[in-house]
Design a protein that fits this description.
- This protein has an eight-stranded antiparallel beta sheet with strand order 14-11-13-12-16-17-15-18. A six-stranded mixed beta sheet has the order 1-2-10-7-8-9, with helices on both faces.
- It is of the alpha/beta class and 506 residues long.
- The chain has three domains: 3-52 and 152-324, 3-Layer(aba) Sandwich (Rossmann fold), CATH 3.40.50.1100; 55-145, Rossmann fold, CATH 3.40.50; 329-504, 3-Layer(aba) Sandwich (Biosynthetic Threonine Deaminase, domain 3).
- 42% of the residues lie in helices and 21% in strands.
């Protein structure tokens, strides 16, 4: 073992993280293990007092400062989790903490820093811009800078996670999966694991739109990104550290890059096994593990993912829930063209009736064709071609939107609009029990003279489904339609007089 590796091993063994941090549990993910046919373990750093591993490195750095240095006050730049670690450490050590955070930082994190006594300064769109401003303030006021990742004491503090994993699981481990932003976590974990049990693989995981470390290692020098994706704000780093680049290049075995959908699916996986809600950066290790298993067709191996944070903004959950099914390859979205004639929509529903429908969006037009957005549950991506083929056999034109971010992020919520041929249309909202056949029962019971002119359905995972439906009903049939909906027994609301309907859809 060379001198520098020995130095890091000594630093890790002598870290003072346990003055403030806990030894986080290593929990087996039983549901994920069964699904992936491997033994999956989660290192639960989301259970730390600030719901992130960052507390370890921040406190270890600050605990080694002299009383004179602490009296000057500390400053750091952070997207949120390091900031909370510095703020809590400063509170414990009795010094001032000045925290520069990007303006894109979730409010949950900035509020948490203020609650811990940190003095927050919002500046810049990314970590890199916040970092540059923090350096300016450091020079102006003489504060001591606590780097979020490129500092030996910070790296050593994070390395205690690797020490705990090997102590908690003393049997064979094939690989440990670690999220990478600036590289402090993976540098510390790899430094310990490769010193003690070098046969265990350390796999780094980055977002595809924030992969500065992957690009740097492959290029053999540090690469600065022009832009970074902000979904995983905790890993949105344009330039990695000098020391973290050196350690990662030397010690990390492989890398995986994952996309937003995969991370959303991993957040759902963690919730199903632990009932905890991870932030995107916190779920990246799971997403990378799943992708690595699929790419290498691993079975029967022991794999560990570090769930490194759980500071999730509540208002992000809707987006995560929508994208998780796509990330898990459990939902496929299609654009289907059908002839604009009576019965076509019902025939489309019959064609896909053997699958769980997750979404239908349709609006009558003044042409010969209609375009319908259809979401269907699938077991894996290979079923998409078969679904397109079955729709083609019924003389429908179908386009898969599985890889289309425009459709998944925006179009699915915007289809519809006004129609010049929606005369005698009435608009209703229905709630019906979410069970197989409920939708077809509704369509099959309708009188053939009633034409569907608008339809929207989205599966929300509840016990009941919600449908918005426009129906063209002749005036003389209104009493018959009223009898029809009463017979169905589904809860409904007549929205025909709703002013929003007349503003945007009528």
């Amino acid at each position: 073992m060379d001198q520098r590796r020995l130095e890091y091993l000594q630093r890790i063994l002598n870290s003072r993280v346990y003055d403030i941090a806990i030894e986080s549990p290593l929990d087996r993910a039983s549901k994920l293990s069964a699904r992936l046919d491997n033994d999956i373990w989660l290192k639960r750093e989301d259970t730390q007092p600030v719901h992130s591993f960052k507390l370890r490195g921040a406190y270890n750095k600050m605990a080694h400062l002299s009383a004179e240095e602490l009296a000057r006050g500390v400053i750091c730049s952070s997207a949120g989790n390091h900031a909370q670690g510095v703020a809590m450490s400063a509170q414990r050590l009795g010094c001032d903490a000045h925290i520069v955070m990007p303006v894109t930082t979730p409010k949950l994190k900035s509020d948490a820093v203020r609650a811990l006594g940190g003095k927050v300064v919002l500046h810049g769109e990314s970590y890199t811009e916040a970092f540059a401003h923090a350096v300016e303030l450091e020079k102006q006021h003489g504060y001591l800078f606590v780097h979020p990742f490129d500092d030996p004491d910070v790296i050593a503090g994070q390395g205690t996670i690797g020490m705990e994993i090997l102590r908690q699981h003393q049997h064979s481990v094939h690989a440990v999966f670690v999220a990478i932003g600036g590289g402090g976590l993976i540098s510390g974990v790899a430094a310990y694991i490769k010193a003690v049990r070098p046969g265990i693989k350390v796999i780094g995981v980055q977002m595809k739109d924030s992969d500065a470390m992957v690009q740097s290692v492959r290029a053999g020098h540090k690469v600065a990104l022009n832009d970074v994706g902000l979904f995983s704000d905790g890993t949105a780093v344009k330039v990695v550290g000098d020391e973290t680049f050196r350690l990662t290049s030397e010690l990390v075995d492989d890398f995986v890059t994952v996309d937003t959908d995969a991370v959303c699916a991993a957040i759902k996986d963690a919730f199903e096994d632990t009932r905890s809600i991870l932030e995107p950066a916190g779920a990246m290790g799971i997403a990378g593990l799943k992708q690595y298993v699929a790419e290498h067709q691993l079975t029967g191996q022991t794999l560990v993912a570090i769930t490194c944070g759980a500071n999730m903004n509540f208002d992000r959950l809707r987006f995560v829930a929508d994208r998780a099914e796509a990330g898990e390859e459990r939902e496929a979205l299609f654009a289907v063209t059908i002839p604009e004639v009576r019965g076509s929509f019902k025939r489309l529903c019959e064609t896909v009736s053997q699958r769980d429908v997750t979404e239908f969006s349709y609006r009558i037009t003044d042409g010969d064709e209609a375009h319908v957005l259809v979401g269907l549950s699938i077991k894996n991506r290979s079923e998409v071609t078969a679904i397109c083929d079955s729709l083609t056999e019924q003389r429908f034109s179908a386009i898969s939107l599985v890889e289309d971010d425009l459709a998944k992020e925006h179009l699915r919520y915007m289809v519809g609009g006004r129609s010049s041929v929606c005369g005698s249309e009435r608009l209703y909202r229905f709630e019906f029990p979410e069970r197989p056949g409920a939708l077809m029962r509704f369509l099959s019971s309708m009188h053939p003279n009633w034409n569907i002119s608008l339809f929207h359905y989205r599966n929300h995972g509840a016990d009941y489904g919600r449908i918005l439906i426009g129906i063209q009903i002749p005036d003389e049939d209104l009493s018959g339609f009223q009898e029809f909906v009463e017979t169905l027994g589904y809860r409904y609301t007549d929205e025909t007089a709703n002013p929003v309907y007349h503003m945007f859809l009528r």
